[in-house]
């Protein structure tokens, strides 16, 4: 079998292992689904009447793409915490003793976590439909919106994989990821229009990739106002392209770095 074929085969095995673990530890699924539901309900009914939006769009349609983006980005942090946990428990040492591809462990981990994000998105979309969110575009465009969210989150998973390999304790990974991802998601257009931001923060938010993945999802779901003014910033004028550029950059940088860090860790 070729090297690529062996890597893919080993990755499938590791992915299955991680998904079976989720099945045997149902708490992971319970909290991965309950938290987004609570967040949708709280934001919809607590903030819904306090946010000024352009005429013609309700807060549910403005909110859901933002919450979907925040949830999948936060969901990608599971990758780092899980890898750190495997290191702490000595599971990586067991993998090292097996005749398997080094990259397969990371690929299997990130793909399995992408599967968890699919479950979270499905639950949130159903909850959103229940509170007034609607998709006003074609089936293909809506599928593109969900795919954009998942692809961006998958790239973030590789960044978090590197953090998990360097930090090596789940608690520190969770704290470190929260300190970075929390400001990125809230300093964006996920929950409020950017016009309400101070000028410096608004400029940052306009170039923040979380803002563009939210804007891209809104456009693909048909949750924007027809004929509304076009944003001044280039990233928000081309949100899908800008998000895919960031996705490619993150993958190009962090996939090799993560694999190299794993090899160093596994060779100790």
Please, could you describe this protein's structure?
The structure is a single chain. The protein is mainly alpha-helical. It has one domain (3-264). It has twelve helices and no strands. Helix 1 (3-24) crosses helix 6 (102-130) and helix 3 packs across helix 10 (209-221). The radius of gyration is 19 Å and the shape is elongated. 39% of the residues are buried.
**Inertia-based shape:** elongated
Determine Rg (CA atoms, Å): 19 Å
Low-confidence blocks of residues: none
Q: What is the domain total for the residues?
A: 1
Short description:
With 268 residues, the chain is mainly alpha-helical. The chain has helices at residues 3-24, 27-47, 59-75, 77-89, 91-96, 102-130, 139-167, 170-186, 199-207, 209-221, 234-237, 239-266. It has one domain (3-264).
Supply the key terms.
268 residues, mainly alpha, elongated
Helix and strand arrangement:
Blueprint: H1 3-24, H2 27-47, H3 59-75, H4 77-89, H5 91-96, H6 102-130, H7 139-167, H8 170-186, H9 199-207, H10 209-221, H11 234-237, H12 239-266
Helix pairs in contact: 1-6, 2-3, 2-6, 3-6, 3-7, 3-8, 3-10, 4-6, 4-7, 4-8, 6-7, 7-8, 7-10, 7-12, 10-12
């Amino acid at each position: 079998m070729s090297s690529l074929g062996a890597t893919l085969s080993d990755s499938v095995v590791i992915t299955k292992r991680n998904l079976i673990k989720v099945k045997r530890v149902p708490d992971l699924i319970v909290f991965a689904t309950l938290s987004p539901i609570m967040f949708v309900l709280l934001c919809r009914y607590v903030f819904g009447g306090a946010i000024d939006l352009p005429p013609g769009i309700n807060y549910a349609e403005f909110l859901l793409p933002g919450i979907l983006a925040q949830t999948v980005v936060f969901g990608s942090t599971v990758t780092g915490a899980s890898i750190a946990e495997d290191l702490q428990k000595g599971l990586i040492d067991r993998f090292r003793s097996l005749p398997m591809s080094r990259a397969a462990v990371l690929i299997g981990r990130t793909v399995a976590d992408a599967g968890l994000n699919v479950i979270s998105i499905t639950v949130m979309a159903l909850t959103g439909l229940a509170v007034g969110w609607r998709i006003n575009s074609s089936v293909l465009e809506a599928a593109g919106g969900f795919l954009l969210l998942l692809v961006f989150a998958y790239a973030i998973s590789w960044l978090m994989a590197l953090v998990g390999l360097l930090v090596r304790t789940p608690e520190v990974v969770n704290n470190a990821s929260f300190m970075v991802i929390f400001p990125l998601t809230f300093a964006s257009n996920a929950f409020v229009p950017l016009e309400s931001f101070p000028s410096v923060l608004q400029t940052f938010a306009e170039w923040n990739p979380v803002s563009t993945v939210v804007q891209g999802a809104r456009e693909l779901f048909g949750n924007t106002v027809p004929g509304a003014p076009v944003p001044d910033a280039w990233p928000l004028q081309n949100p899908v392209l800008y998000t895919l550029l960031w996705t490619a950059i993150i993958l190009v940088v962090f996939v090799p770095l993560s694999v190299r860090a794993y090899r160093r860790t596994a060779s100790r």
